[in-house]
Design brief:
- This protein is an alpha/beta fold and 373 residues long.
- It folds into 3 domains: 67 residues, DNA polymerase, domain 1 (Orthogonal Bundle); 187 residues, Rossmann fold; 75 residues, Arc Repressor Mutant, subunit A (Orthogonal Bundle).
- Helix content is 50%, strand content 13%.
- A 9-stranded mixed sheet has the order 1-2-6-5-4-3-7-8-9, with helices on both faces. The chain has a 3-stranded antiparallel sheet with strand order 10-12-11.
- Helix 8 packs parallel to helix 9 and helix 11 packs across helix 12.
Length: 373
């Protein structure tokens, strides 16, 4: 990608009051990214939802100089940019209307991993919360999920550490630019994440300070780029419940760890469960069941075994399986006619295939493939 293209991408994100929805609208109406900045102010104002303020900011090109500075920062710090039309942009987030058009990324994990889980919760994590977080992530290790959180104190930090302890990839979504780590005490954790094939991601340019209003924006990325979100501990108000509500609006599965009704940082989780906004999760097996991962894995193992068996079949056995694959359920007589094999030879081959789990013997001397190979 050329610096000019990147300059346009960054510049559009720097225009005040232009979020993901408005940016995509501008690009669509103007026929492309460069077309946005080439359009006259009067024409921009005709676009629904684009008022004089945004039209003036776009047509004035005042953000280009700042965008060029950002490109220098990106190159110097080996940061990857992900535009929403790029193949490496998180595909799950791409389907969220308000997803950012541009992300800044450091690290190695595949943001489009087969399984992506977010873990969020209070900054005031208890020993109970630490234990449940550790147990759940440890229980999910066999699925090798990408673990996403916000690199904050408490549950976020514990989720990242637990993932690292299990050699799982983990990504921290930041509410500021990549020129800093907030809170500073999590700097060593961020370094460890990057060294252990983890990553850091944000939609904020450098020199963006971690203002309070940035974190709800950050939370929509956490909720949007995952398959499911787990709330470990949370009060009835705060970022974790905001993230859970965003995840529900994106039709993501939400899970919450229950706790005692008298515990402040279990009340938010209990409320999510009671109001049917989250599945109750006691262990990783609850997540496996709801997400259907265990069944998917069984199917994959079965298919792998069948493919292995198929490779071990001799020519006459493959001839029979080819006929069954093409014709579906077939009678013994049909198979005998099509293969030209003797009665005894065909009977022996069919019995061997049945023992190997490649075919089923049905009533009425009919035979069926165990699965499509």
């Amino acid at each position: 990608m050329s610096d000019d293209q990147l300059k346009y991408q960054i510049a559009l994100t720097m225009i005040p009051k232009v979020g993901g929805i408005t940016a995509k609208k501008l690009i669509a109406y103007c026929g492309g990214l460069e077309g946005v900045f080439a359009e006259k102010k009067a024409n921009l104002m005709k676009i629904p939802g684009i008022g004089e303020f945004i039209a003036k900011a776009v047509s004035g090109h005042g953000v280009f100089k700042e965008a060029e500075k950002e490109i220098e920062f990106i190159k110097k710090n080996q940061i990857t940019t992900l535009f929403y039309t790029d193949a490496n942009y998180p595909s799950r987030l791409k389907h969220c209307d308000d997803g950012p058009i541009l992300l800044f990324y450091k690290g190695n994990p595949d943001l489009n991993s087969d399984k992506v889980i977010a873990v969020v919760g209070t900054r005031n994590i208890t020993e109970y919360g630490k234990q449940k977080c550790k147990e759940i992530i440890e229980g999910l290790k066999k699925y090798n999920p990408l673990i996403v959180s916000g690199l904050a104190y408490g549950v976020d930090a514990k989720a990242h550490k637990s993932a690292l302890d299990q050699s799982l990839p983990t990504v921290g979504v930041l509410g500021h630019g990549l020129d800093r780590i907030y809170p500073k005490l999590n700097g060593p954790l961020a370094d460890r994440m990057l060294k252990q094939n983890g990553g850091l991601i944000t939609d904020f340019v450098s020199n963006t300070i971690p203002d309070r209003e940035n974190f709800p924006k950050r939370n929509r990325i956490i909720a949007g780029m995952v398959d499911a979100l787990i709330v470990i501990e949370a009060a009835v108000t705060g970022g974790a419940l905001i993230t859970a509500n965003i995840a529900n609006s994106y039709n993501r599965d939400v899970f919450a760890v229950p706790g005692r009704t008298t515990d402040l940082y279990s009340q938010g989780c209990n409320l999510l469960i009671k109001s049917h906004k989250a599945h109750m999760v006691e262990s990783a097996r609850d997540i496996e069941y709801v997400m259907g991962w265990e069944e998917d894995d069984k199917k994959k193992v079965k298919k792998q075994l069948q493919q292995q068996l198929f490779l071990e079949l001799d020519e006459e056995e493959k001839l029979i399986t080819d006929i069954l694959s093409q014709n579906g359920d077939s009678s013994f007589d049909l198979l005998k006619s099509k293969t030209g094999l003797s009665f005894s030879k065909l009977s022996s081959l069919l019995l061997n295939l049945e023992f190997k789990g490649v075919i089923y013997n049905l009533p009425g001397k009919m035979f069926r493939m165990a699965a499509t190979i």
